[in-house]
Description:
single chain; Nucleotidyltransferase, domain 5; 41% helix; globular; carbohydrate metabolism; Sugar (Pentulose or hexulose) kinase
Amino acid sequence: MNTASIAATIMEGRTALGIELGSTRIKACLVDSDGTPLASGSHTWENELVDGVWTYSLDAVWVGVQAAVRALLESAHDQYGARPDHFGAIGISAMMHGYLAFDAFDNLLTPFRTWRNTGTGRAAAGLTALLGVNIPQRWSVAHAYQAILDEEPHVAAVAHLTTLAGYVHWRLTGQKVLGIGDAAGMFPVDAAAASYDVDRLRLFDSAVATQHEYPSLSELLPRVLTAGQHAGRLTDEGALLLDPAGRLQPGIPFCPPEGDAGTGMVATNAVAARTGNVSVGTSVFAMVVLEQGLSAVHDEIDQVATPAGAPVAMVHCNNGAGELAAWAGVFREFAHATGNEVAADDVYEVLLRSALLGAPDAAGILAYNHLAGEPVVGTDAGCPLVVRSPESELTLANFARSQVYGIFGTLSLGMAVLRRDGVELDAIRAHGGLFRTEGAGQRLLAAALGVPVSVGAGAGEGGAWGAALLAVYLGHAHRVDLAGYLAEQVFAGAPVTVVAPDPEDLAGFAVFLQRYEVGLDVERAAVRVDGARVSRAAGELVR
């Protein structure tokens, strides 16, 4: 389309808006009726560690959403001379899991507890035993039960639980609903019923709610919807929340709000059986669509769902590219100290290109990216480490490769559990900023997982685009399922790069992973060290 036709498409509302609240960036993406991106906007934000809890304030949520939408509107105007006052549909996505609890007057009862918190071990273990399915520490029901066990004062007032995507959608539409993929990270779902597992809800209520005088959990959870179902319309209040300037019109329809895992699956066309995707950001996770359920309960694996409700095995690692980002900042600071200004994207490209030149096993250098606890390997707190033997060759290339391998270390261990359970994959589709440097992260991920890895042209766009596609799907759901819509109308003929595992990289990563598993004892020991005590001792030595 030329500029004039795109402008007409925008002004006539033949578009969809997707908004995703990621861990480091809030992004808005505008697409046309074919799902083609037209404009985008973003806002950078960071979680805070407040009183030992990883959180974001709700004020920061709206500052960020408004900034991202404002940047998108300005981008549309700058590119096409069109500033939209309405859209065809809107979709919301955000980080899954965590704990947002409200009272009967819609007041937030305790600061938002994100997926990154790992203080719910006792609750998660108890619920896993009770419900007969793995309940990870980050799931909403684990946070709720831990609050009950800890006898937190706010528990008596809880009237509504939701996720971040559910919260934003609720404020914009007035509807307390959730897409089934995101709901599956709150409480186990029944794929056949396309809702929460009724039998397990009864188990929770009889064993937990009754004992602790807690409301029936079904009364607290959002209503579950699947992709293609209408989930409300933009209210007057919601329109002002998105656009305080007051130009955005209310009444725009919404698709069900989804988690970042679900919109990542949509953005990579990985919603059909035997497909899977890997998302790399502050966390790293793999979603594998199952042909049938798993044969056993695995602590490393969540059983969740696609936005259409198909069963999914999820390997979620709390730690992703955050430590690589920290090192990129160090190298950028070093360049600045030498009088050379280097853009952040250029630093990443140098590191990732260098990683391809490193020894296949990273020359004996181990990197642990654990900024937070990592339940996959049994740690409840983080301590980033770089460990090497005196014989290892410390070069930029080997160091960079160890850092990228470190991002995929715990993911590889979790995926091995799926292989032992008989789960088969034809290929993995990857997305996230790590894959913007063509071929680098993709090649090393293929080595870590032992399967071909495909990356599409929009790999760096992520879930905001996926949310927009789910919004567009509202107009197609009556005649085609989600997998068919994506395959036939969005991704048909789309350029995709596929990289098969390199035999030398495969052998090298296998050696790295053996060392990585042994070295986890060092990581666990570091986590056990009382940092405050060490700091006090160091202070005494200085004095």
